[in-house]
Every structure is written in C-alpha cells, then in structure tokens.
C-alpha cells in the first residue's frame, strides 16, 4: 500500500490491493480474557469501577509506524510510504456497550484517552495530522464489533481539514475573528438549528448540512486544540454529557453514523518552516462532526463534492430536540428523509 497524490484536487489517496483480515477467532478478540491480542499500547483504568479503556495497534493498519514517508516523484505524480499510526481504542470491557447509554464519567474517561494519545503522537515530527473517528454500524464501515473508536496519524493533512484551516485563516485575516466563534454566536442567537446547549458546549445542525441530521458539537469558548483543551481541564463530564445526548437522539433515527474529531494539525511536523500554521491559536476552533447514514441509498453525494440534503437543518434540529436524550427502553427506528 502507498499514498498517491491527485495533482488536480491535491488530495492524498491510500492505494493498495489489501485483502480482508481473516482472524479465525470465533469469539471477540477485544473482550476481556481473549488470548489473541498483544499487550495494549496504552490503557486507562476506570476510576469508579473495574475495567479499563485499552488501546491496541490496528491488526490491518492503514498506516505503519516504522520508517519515514520518503516522498518521491513518478513523472508529474507524487507518492510516499504510508508512514503513520492506526490504533484501535477499545472503549469498554462490555461487548454490548454504547456511548449513547454510557455513564458520562466513562465517556469523559474515553475523551481523555483520545486527548492523551493525540498529544503523545504529536511529539513525532513525521506525523502532520492526528485524529480520532468512530464508524458505528455496518453501513458506516464498522469492521470490529466490540465498541471502539479509531485513531490515525498521517504524514499529510487531509483535504477537508486543509479547507477548514485555510478558510479559518482567511476569515481571521479579513475580520480578526474566528469563523467558528461567529457561527456559534449566530446559531445561539437564532436558535433554529440548535439541538442542545450547556454552559460550555453547543450541539447544532450546521447551516449547510451535508446529510440529514448532521450534528456538530462545538465549544462555546475559543480553543484550537482538542487535546490541549481537555488535558488542561479538571474533568470533562460536561462534554461527555452533550455528546451522549446527541448520540442518544440520533440512534432513535438511525443505527449508523460517522463521528470525526477535528482538531489542530501537528505544528512541530514542519517546525523548520517559518510561519507553519502559526496563527492556529487565533483562527482555528476544534469540534466534533457526526454524520448519520441512511439505511437506503440517497442522492446525498450524487455529484462529487456537491451534497444533496433532503431535510433542512432547521427541520432536523426541531425533530432532534423533540426526541428524548436517553436511549433507555426506546425502540429503534429507521432514518426518514422527510421534513417535519
């Protein structure tokens, strides 16, 4: 497998002929007592009950930890080795656990684990971007049945993050304000797309939602780095609570979603370059994006980079606000793409 750069869109593509991993194991290898796993890279014991969050190398990684990227040319094309990290973060010892029904202290513990792993990998100058994502449900690409999230560290900044970084920088140059802070303030004032709010966090359906019921969780204060922010807080149950409530609402509509953390890139990766993302602390703003996935195929991505969202974010927010913020004893339903 190698990384190849599209010279037109400037996006990097993982290219290879990999085959699905055949484990041969009849039971879950991530459940406690399994003898199919090595020692974890990292573990974080729960403070209030037995068990721990455990972090392992992915058994079929997209990126490999050894060596250097060795960027090189093939005619007009660029390519490089898939140097980076790919980790599985086992969220709970319970095979049937869900974040939407978890204790908020456990979710806060998981968020701290995310921050600790990102902070650790940002010390490696080979990695330009580190993030955490979660694919929930088979149609979202979930391969491991045990409740987990995944971390990747890559030798490049993904294109969507680059768009965000550049747009945020340009907005700040023009207005001397953070665009995310302006979004957060306007959404609070208008209220029509707000789903949940707490002292420090806001959950909203973004103005230009890509899919029905898309949700963002964004701090109501300015901070560019998720890991730095969380590791300097005494506790994170407030963020855990609003995230749990968002997932509980969404899971009453669909069982499948992508959840991705957007945080600042690794600035020490190019510390020899003067001014490399030097204004991040002023113009970027970390946040979490959750994209639900329908059970049936839709036109939500019918033309490349042009999204079609058949439910307005205002209607989506209104419906989500009406749903209970707890999953307990609630029936599962299928996502419907009609406005209220």
Structural notes for this entry:
The protein has 340 residues and is an alpha+beta fold. It has a single domain (2-15, 27-322), classed as HIT family, subunit A. It is built from 7 helices and 14 strands. A hairpin with a 2-residue loop joins strand 5 and strand 6. Helix 1 crosses helix 5 (237-250). The longest helix has 18 residues, at 104-121. The protein starts with a strand and ends in an 18-residue tail after the last helix. Residues 329-340 have low confidence and may be disordered.
Notable traits:
single chain; 340 residues; alpha+beta; HIT family, subunit A; 4-stranded antiparallel β-sheet; 21% strand; globular; disordered C terminus
CATH topology: HIT family, subunit A
Structural class category: alpha+beta
- Mean of pLDDT: 88
Give the CA-based shape: globular
- Approximate strand percentage: 15-25%
Strand order of the largest sheet: 3-4-7-9-8-13-14-12-11-10
Provide the CATH architecture. Answer: 2-Layer Sandwich
CATH superfamily: HIT-like
> How many individual domains?
1
Uncertain residue ranges: 329-340
Detail the topology: elements first, then pairings.
Blueprint: E1 2-5, E2 12-15, E3 42-45, E4 52-57, E5 72-74, E6 77-81, E7 85-90, H1 104-121, E8 129-136, E9 148-154, H2 159-175, H3 179-190, E10 194-197, E11 201-204, E12 215-219, H4 226-231, H5 237-250, E13 257-262, H6 280-283, E14 287-292, H7 313-322
Antiparallel strand pairs: 1-2, 1-6, 3-4, 4-7, 5-6, 7-9, 8-9, 8-13, 10-11, 11-12, 12-14, 13-14
């Amino acid at each position: 497998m190698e990384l190849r750069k599209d010279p037109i869109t400037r996006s990097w593509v993982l290219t290879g002929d990999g085959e699905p991993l055949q484990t041969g194991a009849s039971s879950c290898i991530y459940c406690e007592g399994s003898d199919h796993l090595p020692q974890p890279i990292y573990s974080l014991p729960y403070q209030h009950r037995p068990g721990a969050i455990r972090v392992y190398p992915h058994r079929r990684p997209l990126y490999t930890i050894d060596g250097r990227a060795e960027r090189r040319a093939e005619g007009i094309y660029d390519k490089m080795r898939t140097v980076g990290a790919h980790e599985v973060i086992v969220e709970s010892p319970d095979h049937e656990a869900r974040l939407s029904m978890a204790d908020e202290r456990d979710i806060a513990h998981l968020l701290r684990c995310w921050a600790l792993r990102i902070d650790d990998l940002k010390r490696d100058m080979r990695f330009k971007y580190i993030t955490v994502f979660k694919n929930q449900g088979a149609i979202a690409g979930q391969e491991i049945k045990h409740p987990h999230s995944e971390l990747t560290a890559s030798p490049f900044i993904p294109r969507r993050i680059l768009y965000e970084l550049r747009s945020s920088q340009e907005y700040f140059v023009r207005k001397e304000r953070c665009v995310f802070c302006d979004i957060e303030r306007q959404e609070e004032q208008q209220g029509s797309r707000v789903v949940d709010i707490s002292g420090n966090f806001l959950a909203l359906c973004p103005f230009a939602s890509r899919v029905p019921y898309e949700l963002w969780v964004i701090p109501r204060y300015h901070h560019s780095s998720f890991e730095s922010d969380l590791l300097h807080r005494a506790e994170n149950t407030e963020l855990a609570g609003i995230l749990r409530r968002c997932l509980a609402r969404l899971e009453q509509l669909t069982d499948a979603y992508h959840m991705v953390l957007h945080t600042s890139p690794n600035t020490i990766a190019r510390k020899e370059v003067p001014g490399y993302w030097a204004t991040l602390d002023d113009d970027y703003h970390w946040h979490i994006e959750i994209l639900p996935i329908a059970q049936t195929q839709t036109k939500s991505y019918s033309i490349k980079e042009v999204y079609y969202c058949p439910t307005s974010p205002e209607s989506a927010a209104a419906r989500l606000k009406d749903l209970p913020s707890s999953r307990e004893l609630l029936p599962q339903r299928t996502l419907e793409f009609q406005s209220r």
